[in-house]
Amino acid sequence: MRVMGVDPGLTRCGLSVVETGEGRRVTALDVDVVRTPSTMPLPERLLAVWTAAEFWMDTHEPDVIAVERVFAQHNVSTAMGTAQAGGVVALAAARRGIDVHFHTPSEVKAAVTGNGNAGKAQVTAMITRILGLQKAPEPADAADALALAVCHSWRAPMIARMAEAERRAAEQKKVFEQRLAAQRRGRGHGGAGAGRPVTGGVR
C-alpha cells in the first residue's frame, strides 16, 4: 500500500509518500515541503498547495491520503489556514477517487512514539529511526508528513476492521428495522373486528 502523508499548512505544507511492506516495515519514497509567503493572497496560496498536491498524486499514485486533522489550536488564524490547506488536498484526492483519512496529532504521536504528548523532536527522531533515514528530515513539517503516512500505514488494518464492523452493524440494524416494520404491518392488517368475542345469541 502506498500512503501519501500531508501535514497541512499555508506557510509550510509537508508532503510525503511511503510504501508498506511485510509486518510493520515502511519505506520512505519521497518527502518535501511546499512553502507560500504570507504576503501572497489567500486564493493563490491555496492554489499553490492544491497544485503541488495534485502533482504528487499524479506522480506517486498513492492508494490513500493521510491528512492531519485540525483538533484544537489557540491561534485561530493558524487553525483556519491548516483546515483550508487540508481541504484543498482532500478535494484534489476526491477528484481522483483516492480515499482520505484524517488523524489527530495525538494519534500520530502515539502511533510513532508510543506517547500521544510527544514533542516534535521526539517524533522526528523516531521517524528517522523507523524509516532508516541517514539524516533527520527537515523542517519539522517534513517529519510530521512522514509521521502521518507511517501512522496510517500501521493503523490501516484496525481502521479496516472498524469499518467492516460498522458496516455489519448497519446491516443488522436495517434487517431488525425491516422485521419490526413487518410485524407492525401484520398487527395492523388484523381487521377492526379481529379477536373480538361474539356477543348475544338466538332469542
From TrEMBL:
<feature type="binding site">
    <location>
        <position position="141"/>
    </location>
    <ligand>
        <name>Mg(2+) 1</name>
    </ligand>
</feature>
<dbReference type="InterPro" id="IPR020563">
    <property type="entry name" value="X-over_junc_endoDNase_Mg_BS"/>
</dbReference>
<protein>
    <recommendedName>
        <fullName>Crossover junction endodeoxyribonuclease RuvC</fullName>
        <ecNumber>3.1.21.10</ecNumber>
    </recommendedName>
</protein>
<keyword id="KW-0234">DNA repair</keyword>
<dbReference type="InterPro" id="IPR036397">
    <property type="entry name" value="RNaseH_sf"/>
</dbReference>
<feature type="active site">
    <location>
        <position position="141"/>
    </location>
</feature>
<feature type="active site">
    <location>
        <position position="68"/>
    </location>
</feature>
<feature type="region of interest" description="Disordered">
    <location>
        <begin position="182"/>
        <end position="203"/>
    </location>
</feature>
<keyword id="KW-0378">Hydrolase</keyword>
<keyword id="KW-0460">Magnesium</keyword>
<comment type="subunit">
    <text>Homodimer which binds Holliday junction (HJ) DNA. The HJ becomes 2-fold symmetrical on binding to RuvC with unstacked arms; it has a different conformation from HJ DNA in complex with RuvA. In the full resolvosome a probable DNA-RuvA(4)-RuvB(12)-RuvC(2) complex forms which resolves the HJ.</text>
</comment>
<keyword id="KW-0227">DNA damage</keyword>
<comment type="function">
    <text>The RuvA-RuvB-RuvC complex processes Holliday junction (HJ) DNA during genetic recombination and DNA repair. Endonuclease that resolves HJ intermediates. Cleaves cruciform DNA by making single-stranded nicks across the HJ at symmetrical positions within the homologous arms, yielding a 5'-phosphate and a 3'-hydroxyl group; requires a central core of homology in the junction. The consensus cleavage sequence is 5'-(A/T)TT(C/G)-3'. Cleavage occurs on the 3'-side of the TT dinucleotide at the point of strand exchange.</text>
</comment>
<keyword id="KW-0479">Metal-binding</keyword>
<keyword id="KW-0255">Endonuclease</keyword>
<dbReference type="InterPro" id="IPR012337">
    <property type="entry name" value="RNaseH-like_sf"/>
</dbReference>
<keyword id="KW-0238">DNA-binding</keyword>
<keyword id="KW-0233">DNA recombination</keyword>
<feature type="binding site">
    <location>
        <position position="7"/>
    </location>
    <ligand>
        <name>Mg(2+) 1</name>
    </ligand>
</feature>
<dbReference type="Pfam" id="PF02075">
    <property type="entry name" value="RuvC"/>
</dbReference>
<comment type="similarity">
    <text>Belongs to the RuvC family.</text>
</comment>
<feature type="active site">
    <location>
        <position position="7"/>
    </location>
</feature>
<dbReference type="InterPro" id="IPR002176">
    <property type="entry name" value="X-over_junc_endoDNase_RuvC"/>
</dbReference>
<dbReference type="GO" id="GO:0016787">
    <property type="term" value="F:hydrolase activity"/>
</dbReference>
<keyword id="KW-0963">Cytoplasm</keyword>
<feature type="binding site">
    <location>
        <position position="68"/>
    </location>
    <ligand>
        <name>Mg(2+) 2</name>
    </ligand>
</feature>
<keyword id="KW-0540">Nuclease</keyword>
